[in-house]
Amino acid sequence: GAGVSQSPSNKVTEKGKDVELRCDPISGHTALYWYRQSLGQGLEFLIYFQGNSAPDKSGLPSDRFSAERTGGSVSTLTIQRTQQEDSAVYLCASSLGTGEWYSNQPQHFGDGTRLSIL
Amino acid sequence: AQSVTQLDSQVPVFEEAPVELRCNYSSSVSVYLFWYVQYPNQGLQLLLKYLSGSTLVKGINGFEAEFNKSQTSFHLRKPSVHISDTAEYFCAVRNTGTASKLTFGTGTRLQVTL
Fold first, then answer.
1. Which of B34, B49, B100 faces A98 most closely, judged by CB atoms?
2. Rounded to an integer, what distance in angstroms lies between the CA atom of residue B45 and that of residue B36?
């Protein structure tokens, strides 16, 4: 079966531009997570969705970052007015669900979007 | 709050030798523990997880890990490594009460050479 799909795989843009990153989770997975992987900070949690709502967005680094999920499926992470420190690999993961019943379920990761800000 | 410490940023090892990658965690609540592997330009792949029960868990590719509650450790081991095991390995924890975010360690680069 298909895994988590992320697009684009690579994105190069100029400082100050807006970018949109897309994640298509595994079919039937209601929980979706965004992480950022950078050299200086390692793997950081950004936000997670249960269905279309985001119970925890505590990891979003600034108000330039936003994410949405529609139809309980595809999610987009938007970064406005990009800065060079936004350069990183953005990883998306999905799992069957959240809440105590699903707490032992692993997260399945996509291959990431490598974002480079010039 | 939770934290995960991977004490070794890099571990060089010869092929067919045993290896241990160390992981210690800190948490005020019960956690589940995971090891993920990341090959170049790929996402993270689950190697194994500890949920409850036997403290020795076996995963894919011949890896195993042992949970030690008193030492708050979850070290990863393999008795004989292959060149193809060269990758970045991440230890992670998550609260047992809710399937929310993973907290990761900084990773250990395993470099296997002939």
1. B100
2. 5
**Chain-chain contact of B97 with A103 (C-beta, under 8 angstroms):** yes
Cα torsion A96, A37, A57, B99: sign: positive
User: Could you tell me which chain B residue has the CA closest to the CA of A49?
Assistant: B100
State how far the Cα of A114 lies from the Cα of A112, in Å rounded to an integer.
6
Judge contact between A45 and A111, C-beta under 8 A. no
Interchain proximity B90–A43, CB inside 8 Å? yes
Supply A82's token pair. 């990009």
Phi, psi of B40 (to 5 degrees): -50, 135
pLDDT, one tens digit per residue, over B36-88 is 999 988 889 999 999 888 999 999 999 999 999 999 999 999 999 999 999 99
Residue range A41-80, pLDDT digits in tens = 789 999 999 999 998 999 999 999 999 999 889 999 999 9
Identify whether the C-beta of residue B50 lies closer than 8 Å to the C-beta of residue B39.
Answer: no
Closest Cβ–Cβ partner in A91, A98, A102 for B43: A91
Task: List chain A residues with CB under 8 Å of B97.
Answer: 100, 103
Query: For B30, left (φ over 0), alpha (ψ -120 to 50), or beta?
Result: beta
